[in-house]
């Protein structure tokens, strides 16, 4: 008798094994950083969030995954209370006065509810949401209609419908509850939050549509917790770095001589060049890196493009050292790293696949 194994089962097993191996090799948390709680999405088991968790751990964050009770089927308010209890437990374990939350999908609503209604505003410093249906999704309205208003007993499904009593109450008053900092990152092609713009918040929240930074980044709902470019936004938010919601442009195209021979002058001496690439998103590999000799705040790197019609081309970029080598690390450590180069309106933005 022939046994068959689905591709999804193999992928799930592979992710689980990779997560277990990676978890065993993580460095100790960096003192002084807030612990992070990842608030999982609907039907999202803990292991599905391990890639995100391990990236955070690798960057020095004490990281806990909060799997939704009933995997997110129950009343969101009950789950929010459970999250607030989890925050207390993490604070007791770590001694931290504040935590940061990263909520995916329904997890973003759970986090907002905890902050607004159950005392989380005194315990949370930064709340980052990934594809959270903050103002509902048509998909759940449709599911409710097809099941005669029941969503097959899935209470949270009904609550995530546009104009549901739950969301109307959650969104009554200001979206941002001081002093918590709110960041909502979402994809313009999210197939579950419809319309995707319903993930955005008002009243001072930072809203980042992924494609405004990386126009060709084809990331949908589930990909938000594993994509390296999305993680770079999470990392910026947790580090307190300012996020420009409309464009990248934190780097600049540099003459090749900047990286090939740093003795010929610093990055600031180089004349501005026309963008050597059309707008788009490109996978790249770092082949050289050096500190700008006249500006210690800048690192000049050479990258080679890995695919597309520009495959094999080599470009030089001048980027803030604080983004590429935080803590004053040697730029040479960047050699062999992969990343994503996004060009928006001719301006480059580079993110490492870490």
- Count up the helices: 11
Poorly predicted residue ranges: 1-5, 258-273
Q: Give the strand tally.
A: 12
Strand order of the main beta sheet, please?
2-1-3-4-5-6
- What structural category arises from helix and sheet content? alpha/beta
Estimate the strand proportion: 15-25%
Helix content percent band: 25-40%
The largest sheet is: 6 strands, parallel
Order of helices and strands, N to C?
HEHEHEHEHHHEEHHEHEEEHEE
- In angstroms, what is the radius of gyration? 22 Å
Mean pLDDT: 85
Shape: globular
Straight-line distance between termini: 43 Å
Descriptive report:
This protein has 354 residues and is α/β, with parallel strands linked by helices. It contains 11 helices and 12 strands. Strand 8 (280-291) and strand 9 (298-305) form a beta hairpin. It has helices at 7-23, 50-58, 76-94, 106-117, 138-146, 155-159, 165-170, 210-213, 228-239, 256-260, 321-324; strands at residues 36-39, 63-66, 99-104, 124-130, 181-186, 206-209, 252-254, 280-291, 298-305, 314-320, 338-344, 347-352. Residues 1-5 and 258-273 have low confidence and may be disordered. The strands form 2 sheets. A 6-stranded parallel β-sheet has the order 2-1-3-4-5-6, with helices on both faces. Helix 1 runs parallel beside helix 2. The chain is globular. 29% of the residues lie in helices and 21% in strands.
Brief rundown of the structure:
With 354 residues, this protein is an alpha/beta fold. It has eleven helices and twelve strands.
